[in-house]
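TA notes, week 10

Several of you asked for a full example with nothing omitted. So below is the full record: structure tokens for the whole chain, then the designed sequence directly under it. When grading your own attempts, check the secondary structure regions first.
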């Protein structure tokens, strides 16, 4: 039987129509799966282990979403200035940025420069926001822990003590027996005598680093005891904005930091965290004090560390008046002026997801999700996990922010360095107290 030309034409037309519908449906499905395809999210990151781990993965996000990501990475010495300048401008040069619960976040909240994320965090059940430790999330709520969420944690750290297991073993020193700060002073003197001529300093600790006062809070809290204090003002100001830099616990915290600083390698007073990490990783210091647990990721990496496999970890030792430390977190926030907030949230949701948190954990040693700690604890090692667990059990958030805080922290750095160089503790702390009082008065914080 012959098929008519008319029938063939009808069949071809039907096939073409069906093909068009299939293409249209596929396009519609892809558009639904990638609602922000074609948009560009500009991301400003601080140089950090998380940043180093995440950058090679970003292409996966771009392919999955169709969103283009432009990343700028800066060293911490200029990062904060660039963030503050950008947030305060009418058209910030970034949409997403690394945020911390300090004055940058607080200023951003007060001035309306950072976006409220409350409406985003529960959009996806798969994201499982509640898997992120609440006490870390609370650091990104403003104006206090009962406020709205302005940042999503990506890595956490608590301040612990790192030490060279091989050197302590050579000297017959059992770190487990060093229960108090006085015990550690004795051990450090022995280390100095044994290795000082070999270019190995007993200790390394941050010096003239603008972030040092955050870690210094751990040393002060280690002496503070069970007395109350006000969050955001920490141990330095009470409810009436009276200053407490001449309090015995505060003085002892400053003295401890200054003494450790004086035991450091040549040039230690100018060290930032970057120099401290490099010095310890290079084997130039026997201990590294009151600093971020996440640096274990660097120290245990043979490509970055000459002491990999030789590092021990412990929570800060007890003092005569207390035992405590502080914790910190990095997060991601969105500029309120960003024209692509929804796409920016897609990047944050991906970057802080269960999958990515687990994949970056080896680099940061500080995942923020309960599920990731469960999955990675064996890899981190028993001693490290025990030290972090003990530290968190005696830890408090180390966040100080209020109008004038930046001026106070600048003076704190000066005070610690001066004490480390031999100036009288009492005189320097009296000066520090007066400087802090002047800031309070200038900012009008204290009621008449």
């Amino acid at each position: 039987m012959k098929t008519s030309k008319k029938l063939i034409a009808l069949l071809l037309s039907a096939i073409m129509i069906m093909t068009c519908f299939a293409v249209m449906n596929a396009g519609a499905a892809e558009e639904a799966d990638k609602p922000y395809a074609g948009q560009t999210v500009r991301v400003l990151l601080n140089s950090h282990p998380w940043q180093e781990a995440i950058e090679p993965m970003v292409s996966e996000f771009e392919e999955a979403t169709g969103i283009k990501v432009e990343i700028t990475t800066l060293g911490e010495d200029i990062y904060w200035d660039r963030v503050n300048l950008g947030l305060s401008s009418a058209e910030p040069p970034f949409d997403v940025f690394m945020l911390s619960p300090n004055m940058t976040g607080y200023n951003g909240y007060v001035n309306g420069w950072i976006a409220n994320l409350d409406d985003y965090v529960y959009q996806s059940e798969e994201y499982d926001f509640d898997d992120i430790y609440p006490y870390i999330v609370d650091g990104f709520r403003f104006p206090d822990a009962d406020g709205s969420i302005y940042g999503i944690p990506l890595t956490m750290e608590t301040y612990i003590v790192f030490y060279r297991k091989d050197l302590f073993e050579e000297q017959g020193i059992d770190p487990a027996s060093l229960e108090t700060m006085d015990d550690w002073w004795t051990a450090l003197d022995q280390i100095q005598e044994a290795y000082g001529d070999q270019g190995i300093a007993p200790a390394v600790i941050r010096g003239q680093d603008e972030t040092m006062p955050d870690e210094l809070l751990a040393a002060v809290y280690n002496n503070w005891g069970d007395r109350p204090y006000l969050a955001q003002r920490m141990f330095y100001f009470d409810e009436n904005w009276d200053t407490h830099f001449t309090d015995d616990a505060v003085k002892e915290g400053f003295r401890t930091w200054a003494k450790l600083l004086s035991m450091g390698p040549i040039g230690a007073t100018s060290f930032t965290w970057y120099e401290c990490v490099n010095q310890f990783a290079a084997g130039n210091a026997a201990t590294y004090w009151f600093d971020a647990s996440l640096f274990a990721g660097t120290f245990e990496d043979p490509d970055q560390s000459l002491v990999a496999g030789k590092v021990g970890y412990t929570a800060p030792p007890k003092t005569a008046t207390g035992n405590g430390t502080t914790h910190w977190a990095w997060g991601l926030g969105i500029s309120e002026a960003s024209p692509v907030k929804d796409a920016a949230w897609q990047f944050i949701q991906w970057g802080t997801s269960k999958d990515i948190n687990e994949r970056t954990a080896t680099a940061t040693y500080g995942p923020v999700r309960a599920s990731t700690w469960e999955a990675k604890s064996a890899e981190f090692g028993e001693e490290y996990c025990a030290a972090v667990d003990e530290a968190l059990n005696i830890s408090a958030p180390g966040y100080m922010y209020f109008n004038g805080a930046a001026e106070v922290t600048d003076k704190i750095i000066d005070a610690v360095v001066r004490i480390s160089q031999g100036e009288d503790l009492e005189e320097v702390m009296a000066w520090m107290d007066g400087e802090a009082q002047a800031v309070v008065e200038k900012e009008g914080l204290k009621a008449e």
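The chain has two domains: 40-157+328-384, 159-327+398-442. Use that as a sanity check on your answer.
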